[in-house]
């Protein structure tokens, strides 16, 4: 039997707040594998992996329904909805993720240029990273 973790340990391991983990449960993205006799949520390593997968989707701006669909394709559970043409949907999501990464890199480059401008005005110019 795999190790069971309470929500506090899961929060510590993922860097997510207790509130966020509870929210993901509420919307059905990550449901604890079990409950203790006292009613405490108990998570397993696959639950933590699923949370980490969601964390990777979040910066790319995927909405809850998109996350739900992606999880049903990538990490299905017995309660996952059936997805028509999962390979085609996965390809579309992959293309979208790639485009969103390009957009984030562009935003980061602009932000780094701005930070360099501010440093130059302070007289503390450092070489830009990246």
Condensed summary:
The protein is built from five helices and three strands.
Molecular structure report:
- The protein is mainly alpha-helical and 130 residues long.
- The chain has helices at 7-14, 18-26, 45-57, 64-74, 86-122, and strands spanning 5-6, 34-35, 41-43.
- The chain has five helices and three strands.
- Strands 1-3-2 form a three-stranded antiparallel β-sheet.
The largest sheet has its strands arranged as: 1-3-2
Quote the average pLDDT. 92
Give Rg in angstroms.
Answer: 19 Å
- Helix coverage percent of residues? 55-70%
Give the overall form: flat
Work out the helix count: 5
Structural class: mainly alpha
Number of strands: 3
Q: End-to-end span in angstroms?
A: 45 Å
Instruction: Name the beta content range.
Output: 5-15%
Report the top-level CATH class of the domain at 1-62.
Answer: Mainly Alpha
SSE order, as H and E? EHHEEHHH
CATH fold node name of the domain at 1-62: Multidrug-efflux Transporter Regulator, Chain: A, Domain 2
In terms of per-residue confidence, which ranges show pLDDT below 50 for 5 or more consecutive residues? none
At CATH level 2, the architecture of the domain at 1-62 is: Orthogonal Bundle
Largest pleated sheet:
3 strands, antiparallel
List the main descriptive attributes of the protein structure presented here:
single chain; 130 residues; mainly alpha; Multidrug-efflux Transporter Regulator, Chain: A, Domain 2; 5 helices; 5% strand
């Amino acid at each position: 039997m795999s190790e069971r973790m309470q929500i506090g340990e899961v929060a510590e391991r993922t860097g997510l707040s207790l509130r966020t983990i509870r929210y993901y449960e509420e919307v059905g993205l990550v449901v604890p594998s079990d409950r203790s006799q006292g009613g405490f949520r108990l998570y397993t390593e696959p639950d933590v992996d699923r949370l980490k997968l969601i964390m990777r989707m979040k910066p790319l701006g995927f909405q809850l329904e998109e996350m739900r669909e992606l999880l049903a394709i990538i990490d299905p559970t017995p309660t996952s909805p059936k997805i028509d043409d999962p390979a085609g949907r996965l390809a579309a999501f992959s293309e979208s993720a790639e485009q969103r990464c390009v957009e984030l890199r562009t935003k980061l480059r602009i932000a780094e240029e701005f930070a360099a401008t501010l440093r130059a005005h302070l007289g503390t110019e450092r070489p830009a990273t990246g």
